[in-house]
Q: What sequence folds into this?
């Protein structure tokens, strides 16, 4: 998947729905497994509040798997504006996972704005990434670097209880190393949740 030099991919006012019980939905990919070095650059833009619904949903990618041995997946300079509804919800990525410790995810210069109606019971919601966890049987830890980025997230009135709510990551499991530089987070008031944090809602294991 490439966008040619000088070209662009702009998704505006779209509706994306994954109707299956465990369906994945995203502004560009519902499910994307990367085995080589890959970059989402600023030629890709999701704007005018894309409506995205599924079990695991992200403004850019629903489920992103870095299955390479030692390569970087990068997200650089994208602007994402979406309305999301699901169980694992991320303004940028619904769920991120990697299979080898030497691989990593790097996010820089992105502006993400998202809203969730959270009509399903007990979702996890992160301004950038909803849920971070290993793939089944993967024993290695992961690495996420984030810098020079902005996350604006809100929960619509009348939404059901949110279990994990984080300005950057909703919930991080399995010992990931999280390297945050300059990240600005803006959230609305009156969040009804169990684990709520300005950066991470639930850091079950790992290092920040």
A:
């Amino acid at each position: 998947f490439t966008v040619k030099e000088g070209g662009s991919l702009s998704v505006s006012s779209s509706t994306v729905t994954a109707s299956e019980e465990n369906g994945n939905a995203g502004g560009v990919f519902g499910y994307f497994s990367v085995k080589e070095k890959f970059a989402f650059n600023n030629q890709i833009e999701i704007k005018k509040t894309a409506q995205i619904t599924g079990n695991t949903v992200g403004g850019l990618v629903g489920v992103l798997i870095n299955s390479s041995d030692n390569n970087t997946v990068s997200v650089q300079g994208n602007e994402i504006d979406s309305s999301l509804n699901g169980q694992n919800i991320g303004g940028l990525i619904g769920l991120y996972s990697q299979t080898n410790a030497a691989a990593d995810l790097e996010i820089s210069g992105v502006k993400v704005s998202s809203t969730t109606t959270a009509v399903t019971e007990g979702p996890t919601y992160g301004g950038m990434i909803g849920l971070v966890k290993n793939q089944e049987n993967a024993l290695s830890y992961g690495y996420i670097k984030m810098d020079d980025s902005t996350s604006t997230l809100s929960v619509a009135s009348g939404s059901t209880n949110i279990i994990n709510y984080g300005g950057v990551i909703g919930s991080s499991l399995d010992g990931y190393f999280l390297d945050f530089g300059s990240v600005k987070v803006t959230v609305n008031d009156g969040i009804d949740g169990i684990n709520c944090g300005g950066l991470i809602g639930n850091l079950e294991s790992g290092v920040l």
Summary: The two ends are 32 Å apart (CA to CA). Confidence is low (pLDDT under 50) at residues 1-9. DSSP finds no helices and 25 strands in the chain.
